[in-house]
Structure formats: structure tokens, C-alpha cells
Design brief:
Helix content: 40-55%
Shape: globular
Radius of gyration: 20 Å
Structural class: alpha/beta
Order of helices and strands: HEHEHEHEHEEH
Strand order of the largest sheet: 1-3-4-6-5-2
Length: about 190
């Protein structure tokens, strides 16, 4: 880089402010061979189906609540009050690839003890557009995971109808830790 280029660059960047650190984890499948083999083996267990699908109408929001989940949890999820711990971007991916990515993402989130996720699926203007087909599959697939306790449409600044918040069940370790914390307080 010659001195004039560096000077020009520094002048252009003079008033730029650094971005704040983001705590979100943007999940990407592993590129190392051993981890990729584990993912490939995991995909053999992938129970998510690509069978016939009724495409959800565009005006029908993505929403699901497993029996026993309190309304307060759903309200906090819907209003974005839970910090998103990881995100998955399914934009412009074929349905089979979305199926594989979602399966690995939810499994990994469960292993990592994550509870609150966001999935970006996109939105189409037409009923049978690719983003709406992926959105419809996503609505089916998420209900097939026992660990998914609820999901709903994201707030507009997080993607609106092109994204959804997902709440996972607490891990056994987190339940035990929570129980111990509350047991100590009640003594």
C-alpha cells in the first residue's frame, strides 16, 4: 500500500465509529473434517420430513406453543424480551439444505445449553415463493423437535415475518442449577 492510499483511507475513515460488540452467535456448520463427519453421521438421524407440504398463507403468522408452556413465556418471546443466543440464516438455501442446517443448529443449540434462538427464513410476496415454502417447512419442522417449546414471528427490527424467535426447553443441567439456586434462597 503506498503512502497516498493509506492517507486517503485514513481521511475517509476519520469519522467512522466502531460497531458495538454483538453477543449473538451466528451459527455456521463446521468446516473441519472431523466435525463435518460428526454432522454427516448426525444427518443420518435427521427425522425432519420433506413430504407433501401445505404452504401456509402469507397472512398466517408462524406461532406455536407446546402444551404446558406459560402464556408469560410466549408474551416475552413475542416481544423480543429474551436475548437471542444464536441465529441461523436460511435465506436462498434449497429446502433440503435448510432441513439439514436446521437439524444441526437445533441439536447444537441443545448441546450448548442455549434457549433462545432466531431463525431467518425470508419472506416472499407470493404464496408459493421459495421463502414462503421454506417458512412453511420451518413451521412443520420446529414442531417435530421435542426441545422446541415455542416459536413466533420476530419483531420488525429482527426480520419481522421473515424471521422467527424459537424457545428451547431447559436442559437437565440448567433445571438442576435453577433448582439449587432457588433451594438456597428458600432456606
Amino acid at each position: 500500500m503506498n503512502p497516498d492510499d493509506k492517507s486517503f483511507f485514513l481521511d475517509a475513515m476519520e469519522d467512522v465509529q466502531p460497531l458495538k460488540r454483538c453477543a449473538d452467535i451466528h451459527w455456521q456448520p463446521s468446516r473441519n473434517t472431523r466435525a463435518r463427519e460428526e454432522v454427516d453421521n448426525e444427518q443420518l438421524d435427521n427425522f425432519l420430513t420433506l413430504d407433501f407440504l401445505d404452504v401456509l398463507p402469507l397472512e398466517e403468522p408462524l406461532v406455536f406453543r407446546r402444551e404446558g408452556v406459560q402464556q408469560g413465556v410466549i408474551d416475552k418471546l413475542r416481544t423480543g424480551k429474551y436475548a437471542r443466543q444464536a441465529s441461523l440464516n436460511l435465506l436462498r438455501q434449497p429446502a433440503e439444505r435448510c432441513r439439514q442446517m436446521l437439524y444441526s443448529f437445533i441439536r447444537q443449540a441443545g448441546r450448548d445449553g442455549l434457549r433462545n434462538l432466531i431463525i431467518i427464513h425470508g419472506k416472499g410476496r407470493e404464496q408459493n415463493s421459495h421463502p414462503n415454502v421454506v417458512r412453511s417447512y420451518l413451521a412443520r419442522w420446529l414442531t417435530e423437535f421435542e426441545d422446541v417449546q415455542a416459536f413466533c414471528v420476530a419483531l420488525p427490527h429482527h426480520g419481522g415475518s421473515g424471521a422467527c424467535y424459537v424457545s428451547l426447553r431447559k436442559s437437565d443441567e440448567a433445571k438442576q442449577e435453577n433448582w439449587e439456586r432457588h433451594a438456597k434462597r428458600s432456606r
